């Protein structure tokens, strides 16, 4: 039987002596024999094939666990290599997506945002109240659920001869506990709806925004949406301006307005923050909340 000491075996296989010792310790490739007095390791010629396979897998990046599986079942080596390559490809795809997302975020940070202070007249409105967990609020960032609620409210207002008079807006308020938020999806109207106004399946709020001063951050669509999962560039500019003015940030005073053209197609977004007038946390609105016909509270 041909026996090779660890140095010779390392030269034949391309594995380092350090790696051979590690594979022995991990039970991946044990030497054929170990001298009981000197502790020297010796390998047989029959182990060359396994050693070459192990080196090839390690060079391909297969982790030690996968190499151990291949050493225990050499006929599965190709299968294990393919599985590893698929994991590597999936990780690369995820990295590419993350890089593209980062590129979009960086581009958004360079996007020009217009900031101004506007004087706004009093404005009657009607809104749909949606209580959701903070995590579920992301779903309402998508167009479809919000569009359905806005559409149902528009139809209900039109049925009372009180059609919306301008662009819709949404507001986020504190919910029933720290894990929930309340979304208010609102339309401006010519007059405050009557006390009996209701919308099946929803709670509604009607009221009047008083005359006020607002900081407005405006952002126009340029053909691409802002990066998902990142703070909107208009929101960044607005919060920076609020901080510059040494004001506390009260989400109840913030309205996100969907800006549309004459056909109703979205062309941009405005974030309007009512400058506080020194009253309570609900400054900037007077409202009453009404249950719907389904008896929700």
Automatic annotation (TrEMBL):
Question: What residue stretches are annotated with the HTH merR-type domain?
Answer: 3-73
> Any idea which GO molecular function terms this record carries?
DNA binding; DNA-binding transcription factor activity
Coiled-coil stretches, from where to where?
81-112
Q: Which UniProt keywords apply?
A: Coiled coil, DNA-binding
Stored Pfam families: MerR_1
Q: Which organism is it from?
A: Microlunatus parietis
Question: What InterPro entries does this protein map onto?
Answer: DNA-bd_dom_put_sf, MerR-type_HTH_dom, MerR_fam, Reg_factor_effector_dom_sf
Q: What is this protein called?
A: DNA-binding transcriptional MerR regulator
């Amino acid at each position: 039987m041909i026996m090779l000491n660890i140095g010779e075996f390392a030269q034949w296989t391309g594995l380092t002596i350090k790696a051979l010792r590690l594979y022995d310790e991990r039970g991946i490739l044990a030497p054929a024999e170990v001298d009981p007095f000197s502790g020297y390791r010796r390998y047989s010629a029959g182990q060359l094939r396994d050693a070459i396979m192990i080196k090839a897998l390690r060079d391909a990046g297969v982790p030690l666990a996968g190499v151990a599986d291949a050493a225990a079942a050499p006929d599965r080596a190709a299968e294990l290599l393919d599985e590893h390559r698929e994991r590597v490809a999936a990780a690369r795809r995820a990295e590419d997506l993350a890089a593209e997302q980062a590129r979009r975020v960086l581009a958004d940070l360079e996007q020009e945002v217009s900031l101004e202070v506007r004087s706004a007249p009093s404005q009657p409105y009607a809104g749909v109240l949606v209580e959701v967990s903070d995590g579920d609020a992301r779903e309402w960032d998508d167009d479809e659920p919000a569009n359905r609620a806005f559409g149902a409210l528009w139809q209900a207002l039109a049925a009372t001869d009180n059609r919306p008079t301008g662009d819709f807006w949404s507001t986020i308020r504190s919910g029933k506990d720290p894990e929930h938020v309340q979304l208010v999806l609102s339309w401006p109207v010519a007059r405050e709806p009557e006390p009996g106004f209701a919308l099946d399946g929803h709670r509604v709020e009607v009221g009047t925004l008083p005359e006020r001063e607002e900081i407005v951050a405006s952002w126009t669509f340029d053909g691409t949406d802002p990066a998902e999962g990142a703070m909107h560039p208009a929101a960044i500019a607005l919060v920076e301006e609020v901080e510059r003015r040494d004001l506390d940030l009260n989400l109840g005073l913030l309205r996100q307005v969907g800006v549309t053209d004459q056909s109703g197609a979205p062309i941009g977004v405005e974030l309007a923050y009512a400058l506080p007038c020194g009253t309570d946390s609900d400054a900037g609105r007077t409202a009453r909340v009404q249950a719907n016909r389904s008896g929700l509270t």
